[in-house]
Amino acid sequence: MVEIYHVISGRYVDSVLLMRVSREMEKLEGTRKAGCMVATEENIGLFRDAGFTPPAGTESNSVLIGVDAKDEESGKKAIQHALDLIDRSQSVAVNRHSLDEIPGLVGSDDFPVLLVSTAGEFVREVGMKALGFGLNLHIFSSNVPVDDELELKHLGREKGLLVMGPDSGTAIINGKGLGFSNALKGGSDVAVVGSSGTGIQELTVQLDRAGLGVSYAIDVGSNDMTKEVQGIMTKQTIAFLNQKSSMLMIVCKKPDSSVREKIIEMIKDRPSAFVSLGSNERYAIGKTYVTGMIDDVVEHALGSMGRKPPAEDSAGHPSSVIGSVRKLLKGYFVGGSLCYQAQAILFKMGVPVYSNAPLSSEYELYDNFGGKSLCIDAGAEEYVVGRPHPMIDPRSRNSMLVKESDRDDVRVLLFDIILGYGSAENPLEGLDGISSGPALVASICGTDRDFQNYADVERKLRRMGANVFSSAAKAATYSAELMRGDR
Questions:
Q1: Residue 313 Cα distances to 89, 277, 477, angstroms
Q2: pLDDT one digit per residue (tens) for the chain, 487 residues
Q3: Beta bridge partners of 283
Q4: Which end of the chain has the smaller Cβ count within 10 Å, N or C?
């Protein structure tokens, strides 16, 4: 094998595009692995973690392309393919403008949003300038220093603008989806604010399936409800959404207790809900319903509006084909929030699991996990080094499922499928050959309007022998029943 590198100096390329280029490089014959990233210090470290030995002295305003190939010819071919893809993608852009030109393009009735997906160290400079122009921010970028996030959000609050993110994967604004989002029918029944990207997607999809309209769903970023950030943008967004819906819902993971109290105090006098994923609570404060489960809050919303819940999912009864030697549950998720919620359900039902994103440090997963039941967030940093997130390229996560399905000690194989804008055209890519030895239990986060075709995905999963559920909570509950022998 041979490693070949190429540096594009002094040129900005969107990080989402670079992730897609990495994927296309790896499809080429003779390519073992490939990476294409802005050459920040952190990304250089990610290259090294992935087994590359990148050249020293690459400036951070450059793009580094690396390939591990079977021979020099294959490596050069992969590098050239990456350059062609980058040139082609940037040359076909329509109405390209510099940031300085954007204010002149915004009308008085517009709600301008700048999507930022550059490397984290460059976000502050771009964001401060955009806020100065009166632009709202949707920051897809991760690894933004907390001090930079605070400065951006303080300025956004001062100017009455939204700063969604950093690490904001999804948003719906007046029915228009940004980033990873699903095709919803829209309406003003419920507005959503959250610090949990796939949690927001799962919640809005369940609301849509229940016949409740959602036209606003704002992802404020995974750090917003921490002690450091103090919910600055959650509070700003709550004010922004005032009068835009009949009910307001907040969804988050591990919020700081003091921030949580302040937010609940802020919303308790209006029909609302606070969903802290993974918690086992269920109570009301004023007009605010507090819970830890997405399905529970959807049922509460339906009841408060005098509507009936949708029909229950049906599933097979595969216990007859599960041998007694099968003792383990293996869960692999592309949605980190859904992984977290699944753990809470499993633990509550007496099925403890280890995880790389555990409910408690006692169940943190380390290197040797072959003989343990587990729930893995396959979108965590350690699994996406130098490659696209599994929502964009599902092959890495799906290959894990295929491998685990061949084991004779796995009783349940639990996984999620996420449809919608930004997600893979074929989310089942790489699942060919999955064995139905263990019980396959899948959930689909999506709607009938999503371009991947919900019904088609469901049909293909059932042909593979999977029990398919319309919510991640139902899939986790069914998995726990199988593990306990209730099914």
A1: 42, 22, 12
A2: 899 999 988 777 777 778 788 888 888 999 988 888 888 887 888 788 778 888 888 887 789 999 999 999 999 999 999 998 888 876 655 567 788 888 888 988 899 999 998 888 889 999 999 999 999 999 998 889 999 999 999 999 999 999 999 999 899 999 999 999 999 999 999 999 999 999 999 999 999 999 999 999 999 999 999 999 999 999 999 999 999 999 999 999 989 999 999 999 999 999 999 999 988 899 999 999 999 999 999 999 999 988 887 777 766 645 445 666 799 999 999 999 999 999 999 999 999 999 999 988 899 987 667 789 999 999 887 777 656 789 988 998 999 999 999 999 999 999 999 999 989 999 999 999 899 889 999 999 999 999 999 999 999 999 999 999 999 999 999 999 999 987 7
A3: 290
A4: N
d(CA 188, CA 190): 6
Q: Give CA separation, 394 vs 189, 201, 332, 384, 415, in Å.
A: 33, 17, 11, 11, 12
How far, in Å, CA of 229 to CA of 263, rounded? 13
How far is Cα 147 from Cα 334, in angstroms, rounded to an integer? 29
